[in-house]
Amino acid sequence: MSRVYLYHQQCTQIWSSLRASSSPLSLSTSSLSSPSLPLYFSPPWLSLSLNHCAKRSRGGVDMGTTELGPSDLRHVESMSHTPSGAGKINKLNAVILGESLASEENDLVMPSPGFSQSALISSQEQYEKMYKKSVEDPAGFWSEIASEFYWEEKWNPNEVCKENIDVTNGRVNIEWFKGAKTNICYNAVDRNISAGNGDKVAIYWEGNEPGQDGQLTFAQLLDRVCQLANYLKQVGVKKGDAVIIYLPMLMELPIAMLACARIGAVHSVVFAGFSAESLAQRIIDCKPKIVITCNAVRRGPKVIFLKDIVDSALTESAKNNVSVDICLTYENPSAMKREETKWQDGRDVWWQDVVPNFPTKCDIEWVDAEDPLFLLYTSGSTGKPKGVLHTTGGYMIYTATTFKYAFDYKPSDIYWCTADCGWITGHSYVTYGPLVNGASVLVFEGAPNYPDAGRCWDIVDKYKVTIFYTAPTLVRSLMREGDEFVKRYSRKSLRVLGSVGEPINPSAWRWFFNVVGDSRCPISDTWWQTETGGFMILPIPGAWPQKPGSATFPFFGVQPAIVDEKGKEIEGECSGYLCIKKSWPGAFRTLYGDHERYETTYFKPFAGYYFTGDGCSRDKDGYYWLTGRVDDVINVSGHRIGTAEVESALVSHPQCAEAAVVGVEHEVKGQGIYAFVTLVEGVPYSEELRKSLTLTVRNQIGAFAAPDKIHWAPGLPKTRSGKIMRRILRKIASRQLNELGDTSTLADPGVVDQLIALADC
User: Fold this and answer.
1) Does 62 qualify as catalytic in the annotation?
2) Which residue in the list 137, 483, 564, 631 is annotated as catalytic?
3) Average pLDDT in the 639-661 region?
4) What is the 3-state secondary structure (H, E, C) of 526-588?
5) Is the pLDDT of residue 169 over 90?
6) Which of 327, 330, 336, 331 is nearest to 298 (CA)?
7) pTM passes above 0.90
């Protein structure tokens, strides 16, 4: 574990002294260091070096000592230790929540005392105490948390966790709470009703068009879940059977997930944007008893004919000897009329014709903690999707606990995650994690920029959203549209922001913090994966200062390690491959039908560790910085350069709205850096701007990281969830235009032709 000790009590005393003073003052460094601990145990954010501060400043600004008066007391200053142990306060780039973070000169964003006082984890000291227990006594730590949930049968306290993640010791195996019986649907719905929250809104739904909305209380949600569960049972779906769900973000999507979980069926949600070929691959692999879909959906002004895609996928799967007898289809009249929907009698069934006729009571299927809950397919380097398998008990505990602390959840919160349930974020942090906590969740069917770029903030004001969790891609996209769309709305209800999906570059972080959050909302910048099930490294709001762009510190029970190419763990300030030393309850258990691939991909690269596939840096203060996928690292003349690092430098340019970087073959350097750049609205392309962008990278990273080619991009090829399809960018950069592959999942397939047309500009 890194030396990260932020002593909240000491800080509070210092803070009180500062506020009590009415005259300029200076502090001795000895007052910031515990007399009973070595000097290096001083809070690292209070001892950032002068060299670090000077490096982060601009224009050679003097970072020396300063006198503080009453007007300065709302800013935090850092002590730099001197050999004598005494000195004056050194200017530190830091602000308190509530102050504007207008400049990249600010290194730290401090939690406001008011936020920390009411936070679930109010200090670094409290975090350290809990973290220490979680790694020294994981069985005791997680058993105590698990006891807060409902279990039909309890676990053996002597067998809470069994694991082997070292391939040299035999088969990789992870088990948590095996033998205990529970049901995640019961914990997410019934348990909340039993607690007296039946009339609390469980799901708010906002449709594609403004004014389309709906809601379900927990009691109403239970009725709807039971009706679908009873239908599934009648058509022969039983415990362990697979169910494919290919739905847009209607309320019926989480209803379908919960209905499967209630009867012990294994759901596999497929993002309703994948092509027929991709859907067919998943059907062939998991052989579902039923496919659940809807006839069509509107996303922005565009209609997507989902039923047609399913029809094609079922035809393709039948050619591979996998037939599905039932296609349950929800009629979505706002997108397509029933009579216009293509239909196959004997297979296709309208949801509205059958499901509402079933009883609103359905018995629970109690399942073992290690019984499968869901399959979620993720991209693989071989082209064949990987069926990530998550089980029930550990996943339930982990997602609920990470949600609770990552967002400082309070029962009065209105929570909105913009992710689709077709991705892991929608499983863990739209459906299961929030509902198990009894949260009111917002489900949004539409596009975040439709009918204009203010839609998100209109929704925030409409529902009084308090927690807003989204992707850096969306942040940068809305940032490109300008502040006006944000500032026309109040957003006063917001108290916590969140980021997910990829490293967020500091300039986007600052805009998110300054403009969207009015410089008062902490940002929970989460790092995790489909495979991890829940958050792994993240800032816990109120507990410690944030550095824009850093995921900060590990969650409870997570033991990160940074290793070199030989698998040797590196201590202190370093860069390398991010691994995890021990299992955690939310970890995936295997790849469906391919345990060998599971071991080869995740556990063989560095024996004794789970290999995340991500690069990572840890700074001298112990903060973790994700640098992107290792396969997104470009080797230029022996220099390993993370694509995220170059992208962050480009986006820091005031005229760059978004950037995506890929590697291409280079005759001399081995690999070259190829950058696709989207400019701020209204900025024209020019060679001068190209040179300016290149110079920005040279100045921030070094000449070795300067792009070899800057390719103007009116837009980037993204899925409807906002993920940039780098595979397509690599093919365009390499001029392998006949190998672009399937582009049907893109939000705007036309952007590919635009990029090709601009290739030589």
Assistant:
1) no
2) 631
3) 88
4) CECCCCCCCCCEECCCCCCCECCCCCEEECCCCCEEEECCCCCECCCCEEEEEEECCCCCCCC
5) yes
6) 336
7) no
